[in-house]
Amino acid sequence: MAESGGWHTIESDAGVFTYLIENLGVRDVQFEELLALEPEYLKQLSPVYGVIFLFKYQMGQNRSEAPIDGHLDTDAPNHMFFANQTIQNACATQAILSVLFNVEGKQIDIGQALEEFKEFTDGFPSDLRGEALSNSDLIRDVHNSFSRSSPFVDEGTRKATEEDDLYHFIAYTPVHGVLYEIDGLQPAPISHGPCTKDEFCDKVIPVIQRRVERYPPGEIRFNLMAVIRDPRITAKSIGDEEMLAREEQKRKDWARENELRRHNFVGFTYELLKGVVKQKVQDGTYDDWIKQTKADNLKKAMAAKKGESED
User: Fold this and answer.
1) Of 91, 143, 192, 201, catalytic
2) Are the CB atoms for 186 and 71 separated by under 8 Å?
């Protein structure tokens, strides 16, 4: 996998992912974070097109080895969209597209730009699909528009080491009657057996549970999001005004949070601190303020150390 080449990290967040795909031209699709690994909970969000799973990547894994769960399907149909991840930091958007591009029929509208990209790469081997995705100016620019603004050097510009905590996105979705795990770091899609779209919720949850159970007890750094139809469509169709208002407010909150992500507040914080210091100097309370701050920090440090010794 190459270095980032201009791709930045983005958060695993339902609002980020929803507005990301809308900016790519996708219509009537939304992401919802799953707070419980229960099939019935997932079914409440139907129709579910797939799920995106974020987990801590364990360095040193041999990609040539057979998967612990499921099997590499090297005979998967070529018109199924599977792309090798060829560049760092692109895995979130790549996992999202792996669901959207594999939804069968006309269940969703992915927009003209993505439809053209999908048609252009149809028949490509997985490595060339990955290269095409990584080199797409449109997809990269939209992806990067949802990265947090920072005045510091982006971590994505350096190559990861074994000391880093690395996280990776993969997708699970039913394709042509098979439950597939789509991971761009694997040489092929991983089949988890027969699965219709109606069986997806029942069959995908045990697969994810088995994967989580392979981690040490206490490991909680996972995130799971469902790719679903926009709930506002259902709310309008059944006349549920309360549900519609709730979903509209959620969209407003997401829009505000995404706007904040585009800005960094280091400069503002610096100017604010300068103002506070100036006021303290003018009041003649600067020295006392510094002494009190040091005393408070020492007290907190001692309390924390005491708590560690009692554990």
Assistant:
1) 91
2) no
